[in-house]
Specification:
By secondary structure, the protein is α/β, with parallel strands linked by helices. Helix content is 27%, strand content 22%. The chain folds into two domains: 2-151 and 333-364, Quinone Oxidoreductase, Chain A, domain 1 (Alpha-Beta Complex), CATH 3.90.180; 167-309, NAD(P)-binding Rossmann-like Domain (Rossmann fold). α4 (158-179) crosses α10.
Length: 367
């Protein structure tokens, strides 16, 4: 199969012919039909997360089941599926505690660059290639745990399903599950990218009255305002904290959703949130960095600081809910897709992402 392989941080991915092993117990081989190019992929490729190499990136994807291993009962060959980058075992402490995205078994697999048993199905046995988040979708084929496959209806476009596999669910869930936004409340979303745009739509669906989008790219103002924002602030041109207090009667927002992964933005999210409000951190900061908040005021603020992973819910449940909203015309996803490219242009897509291109670049594969 053809795959984009990362062999050195900061360098272009190489398009290589890679061997792929048969799926083992409760594993599924999926033919990738569409995969998004996400900031998390970019961070890993640029060496910000400390992943082991070589690896095949990509985690936001949808495709068709090609083959199944022993013990698989959830899907069969020919099924259309969206892939979850946080498959869960169902029996560890966190799975039993209703936090499947914190699954111990998945955590071990993701950090080892393998699957459930810690080993790889990619590349030759003597020189294996690491899996990325149990997906590795920058390839024509991949092997994933059975619980990472979520069946979708025949009329859902693969490109849309791929978006829902990461960006949509992450942004939507941060608002609905972690912040639990209610009608009439105020929300600030920092970063109008693939995740932030879906946080804005979720806030609007929840009935938030004041929805403030913040981004240093002024070109994103129209995008934000057409996807649920009631106000747009460019922090470079306007004082973000003062502007937000002016829009919220001096108190600050009820909820802030930070989607950039920049420590300074995380500190700003805390500062712009009112006492007893919630600060939801979605963005992934580079390894070794910290964000600082004033310790003296923390106890009296009663603010909640929430780390949000994959939207803070149950991926399969939330993905099905989101696809239902999309099919009902209540969630606008088609306009979020930017360029559609082949795998050979993956390095161009990564540079576009660094340059702040509008719209999600989707890599599509021939049937």
């Amino acid at each position: 199969m053809k795959a984009a392989v990362l062999r050195a941080f900061g360098q272009d991915l190489g398009i290589e012919d890679v061997v792929i092993a048969d799926p083992r117990d409760r594993e599924v081989m999926v033919r990738i039909m569409a995969t998004g190019v996400c900031s998390s992929d970019l961070s890993t490729i640029r060496g910000k997360t400390g992943a082991e190499l070589p690896l095949i990136p990509g985690h936001e994807a949808a495709g068709i089941v090609e083959r199944v291993g022993p013990g698989v009962s959830k899907v069969k060959p020919g099924d259309r599926v969206v892939l979850s980058w946080a498959p869960n075992c169902g029996h560890c402490f966190y799975c039993q505690d209703s936090h499947p995205t914190l699954c111990d078994v998945y955590g071990h697999a993701a950090t080892s660059g393998g699957l459930w048993d810690g080993t790889s199905r990619l590349g030759p046995v003597t020189a294996p290639i690491k899996h990325y988040s149990c997906v590795s979708s920058f390839a024509e084929l991949t092997i994933v745990p059975e619980t990472g496959c979520i069946p979708i209806a025949a009329d859902v476009p693969f490109a849309i399903a791929a978006l829902v596999g990461c960006a949509v669910t992450t942004g939507f869930g941060a608002v609905v599950n972690d912040a639990a936004v209610r009608a009439g409340e105020s929300v600030a979303v920092i970063g109008v990218g693939g995740v932030g745009i879906n946080a804005l739509q979720a806030a609007a669906l929840a009935g938030a009255e004041t929805i403030i989008a913040l981004d240093t790219n002024a070109q994103k103002a129209e995008l934000a305002l057409t996807n649920g924002a009631t106000h747009f602030i460019n922090p470079v041109e306007n004082g973000a904290i003062a502007s937000i207090r002016a829009l919220t009667g001096g108190r600050g927002v009820d909820h802030s959703i930070e989607c950039t992964g920049r420590p300074a933005a995380m500190a700003s999210a805390y500062a712009m949130t009112r006492p007893a409000g919630s600060v939801v951190i979605v963005g992934i900061a580079p390894a070794g960095t910290d964000f600082v908040i004033p310790a003296i005021g923390l106890p009296g603020s009663k603010k909640r600081i929430i780390g949000s992973i994959y939207g803070g819910g149950v991926p399969e449940r939330d993905i099905n809910k989101i696809l239902g909203l999309y099919e009902a015309g209540r969630l606008a996803l088609d306009g979020q897709i930017g360029k559609r490219i082949g795998l050979e242009k993956v390095n161009d897509a990564l540079r576009w992402l660094e340059d702040g291109v509008l719209g999600r670049t989707i890599i599509e594969f021939a049937a």
